[in-house]
Amino acid sequence: MAIPKPASTVESEIFELFKEADPSGAYINGLKEYAGKIFIPSRKNLERIAKRTEELRLKAENDLQLKVLDSLAAGFALQEPQTYPDGVLSAFFGYLIKEGIVPSHLKPLTRNAVRALQAAAQETSQKKWPTGLRLLTLIRCDGILEIIKTIKKETTDKQLKELLDNLAEATRKYSSIFRVK
User: Fold this and answer.
1) What are the φ/ψ torsions at residue 96 (nearest 5 degrees)?
2) What are phi and psi of 42, to 5 degrees?
3) Integer Cα distance of 51 and 57 in angstroms
4) Which parts of the chain have pLDDT scores under 50?
5) For residue 39, which of 94, 5, 87 has the smallest C-alpha distance?
6) How far apart are CA 90 and CA 28, in angstroms?
7) Which of 113, 78, 76, 81 is nearest to 94 (CA)?
8) Fewer CB within 10 A of the terminal residue: the chain, N end or C end?
9) How many CB atoms neighbour CB 67 within 10 A?
10) Checking phi first, is residue 79 left (phi over 0); if not, alpha (psi -120 to 50) or beta?
11) What is the pTM of this model?
């Protein structure tokens, strides 16, 4: 399916922001140049997205554009801890549905997923989170560990397996922040 052309300059800028904020989603939806990429939630990247969203809100041409920008801004403003492992899990799930196990795509995705979880740990570890959000985070982390097991069982690529071990370690470290009694 072809990617529709933006109807205006502002719409084009909003689409660019979407690709920056969700590169794995961009790939899954047909933009091949985003293979292996995922959003890294560093303080710098989060601030850049927030600033760009506000700039585009001022340029928005209609209510639909404002709703898209408001939705994007809300998701990034909340910075709930389950958001980050959910993004990793969704990316892997989307890749597997789209194309199966393609090591040349999964290797950079795995490297970037490790970086994303490490950055997320820095952003979320200092806050006290309600039990419900902690549980949601643990569920998402368990999902990542399960998808890692599945890929490792199905691939013969040794480097991919090693990278997946690194992701499993990063996932366990991230989930350890959110344990509940």
Assistant:
1) -65, -40
2) -75, 160
3) 10
4) none
5) 87
6) 10
7) 113
8) C
9) 11
10) left
11) 0.91
